[in-house]
Automatic annotation (TrEMBL), chain A:
Identification of the protein by name: Probable permease of ABC transporter
A single GO cellular-component term on record: plasma membrane
Keywords: Cell membrane, Membrane, Transmembrane, Transmembrane helix, Transport
Membrane-spanning residues: 53-81, 93-112, 118-145, 184-203, 223-244
SUPFAM superfamilies with a match to the protein in the record: MetI-like
Organism lineage string: Bacteria, Pseudomonadati, Planctomycetota, Planctomycetia, Pirellulales
Family: Belongs to the binding-protein-dependent transport system permease family.
UniProtKB/TrEMBL annotation, chain B:
GO molecular function: ATP binding; ATP hydrolysis activity
Name of the protein in question: ABC transporter ATP-binding protein
PROSITE patterns in alphabetical order: ABC_TRANSPORTER_1, ABC_TRANSPORTER_2
Organism name: Blastopirellula marina DSM 3645
Keywords annotated in UniProt: ATP-binding, Nucleotide-binding, Transport
InterPro entries per UniProt: AAA+_ATPase, ABC_transporter-like_ATP-bd, ABC_transporter-like_CS, ABC_transporter_ATP-bind, P-loop_NTPase
Domain called ABC transporter: residue spans: 2-228
Length: 255, 246
């Protein structure tokens, strides 16, 4: 109990002290609010734009999750293919690395041109940036099968399909979850970058749009509020995957 | 009947098994002892059809090993960690496509046979002790009613008392089912206790240098282990083992 209390109280105290120092520096040091807004100003921006920020966070969250889900499905399918033959793996793997090394900011404008100014573009950007960790982790997982178990399957004349579904895929789950943890954060980044360029026509806007418009207008307090929403969104997605691992996938991820 | 005629096996120019002839009769229990790295496991894997001979021929009842009803017990329990005891034992039946009511009825029977309790059937491997996992592994091997059971040092990682207990149980199961058994170990007492014949292999390239018949009656138990005749028999096998290793 005391341990838990310390774990909650100490970081909270750090936060409060940091906020107090920040507030004092800004007010006493007369820092212009467009350079660094005070915590109170950021709080006020939250209060003013609460509804917009909430709907923006939801929209970005939906885009990130959709992109992430697409990356998990697509990445797992690619890994299934890679796990089946060394030749396929050698032929395809360099291009999987391409997805990781290509700067997303550089290709996002082209994707927007290709798929239009809307949610689909944002999802595609989020998918591309979060795909690579899924491919590598799932491929590694499917190839990390215990050699004796492979022989056990061979001994009982298992088909390639049986080996894949009853052995390789379940073995890969724990590796896949590790990949999903890095990938989920990237999907949130991808959604925000996508929104930078897309903007969304119409009434609804995502966090990426708010970041761009508030920084263009030097409304730094609103920019900070949007930044905090982005961070919280990332934390929520990461926590959701941890819960999934701990409860739904426990049988596959614990050894 | 398992038959090896002039079998050799090399891995990348290195000969692991020198020309070997061997016949194991149906229903016989044979142990294979030898120094580490002498090719005992390779010999067992040749019989299992997991390796192919470089030259010579391996047959089980006149057929190639791949078509025989063979079960293999590995050194480690090699269970699927996400499957319960019951589902692990069910795996070979699933892979062979035998999922009717009759084959599935063999699962509880196998659980009984290896001395597991029925409440263990729902447990995952990580909830079981090392000895219990080995029992699950054994049940999985027996559930298909194999003609040939190949065991590659299955009890090497267990403590001595547990090993003795499992030896007695394994022998009792063999008494009921009468599969052909080939058991690898580097423990001479274990080999003598279990077998009707102990084959001694030399150092690499491995070759069978002695074939020692063991004629104790069943059931075998603690009294046999404590007897002078048992010690003498172990002495004979150890003597061959030392000569072969030299």
């Amino acid at each position: 109990m005391r341990e838990t209390l310390q774990r909650v109280l100490l970081p909270t105290a750090t936060l409060l002290i940091a906020l107090a120092i920040w507030q004092t520096c800004v007010t006493k040091g007369k820092i212009p609010p467009y350079l660094l807004p005070s915590p109170a100003a950021v709080g006020a921006a939250f209060y003013r734009n609460g509804a917009d920020l909430w709907s923006g966070t939801l929209l970005t969250g939906v885009a990130a999750l959709a992109g992430f889900a697409a990356a998990v499905v697509l990445g797992t399918l690619v890994a299934l293919l890679f796990s089946q033959s060394r030749l396929i793996r050698l032929s395809g793997y360099p291009y999987a690395i391409f997805f990781q090394t290509v700067p997303i900011v550089a290709i996002a404008p082209w994707i927007v041109t290709l798929t239009g100014y809307g949610l689909p573009s944002v999802i595609v950007v989020a998918t591309i940036i979060s795909l690579f960790p899924i491919i590598t982790s799932a491929t590694t997982g499917m190839l990390s099968v215990d050699h004796s178990l492979v022989e056990l399957f061979r001994l009982h004349r298992a088909s390639r399909w049986q080996t894949l579904w009853k052995l390789q895929f379940p073995t890969a789950i724990r590796y896949l979850v590790t990949g999903m943890k890095s990938s989920s954060g990237l999907a949130v980044v991808g959604a925000i970058v996508g929104e930078f360029f897309v903007g969304y026509s119409g009434a609804q806007h995502g966090l990426g749009y708010y970041i761009r418009s508030s920084s263009d207008n030097l409304k730094t307090d609103e920019l900070f509020a949007a930044m905090i929403c982005c961070t919280l969104l990332g934390v929520v997605v990461f926590a959701a995957i941890n819960l999934l691992e701990r409860f739904a996938l426990r049988r596959w991820t614990e050894s | 009947m398992i038959q090896l005629s002039a079998v050799t096996k090399s891995f990348a120019e290195q000969q692991v098994i020198a020309a070997t002839d061997l016949t194991i009769e149906r229903g016989e229990f044979v142990s294979l002892v030898g120094p580490s790295g002498c090719g005992k496991s390779t010999l067992l894997r040749l019989i299992a059809g997991l390796e192919t001979a470089t030259s010579g021929e391996v047959t089980i009842n006149q057929h190639v090993p791949a078509n025989a009803e063979t079960a293999f017990v590995f050194q480690d329990p090699t269970l699927l960690p996400w499957r319960t005891t019951y589902d692990n034992i069910r795996l070979p039946l699933e892979l062979l496509g035998r999922t009717g009511a009759e084959p599935l009825a063999k699962i509880p029977a196998a659980i009984d046979l290896v001395g597991l309790r029925h409440e263990d059937a729902r447990k995952l491997p990580r909830m079981l002790s090392g000895g219990m996992r080995m029992r699950v592994s054994l049940a999985r091997a027996l559930v298909t009613d194999p003609q040939v059971l190949l065991l590659d040092e299955p009890f090497a990682a267990l403590d001595d008392i547990l090993r003795q207990q499992l030896n007695e149980e394994l022998l009792a199961i063999w008494g009921q089912r009468k599969w052909t058994g080939v058991f690898i170990t580097h423990n001479v007492a274990e080999a003598v206790f279990l077998s009707q014949r102990v084959l001694v292999m030399s150092a690499r390239p491995g070759q069978i240098v002695a074939d020692v018949p063991i004629q104790f009656d069943l059931p075998r138990g603690a009294e046999l282990r404590a007897s002078g005749a048992f010690a003498a028999q172990c002495g004979v096998v150890s003597h061959h083992l030392r000569q072969g290793a030299a």
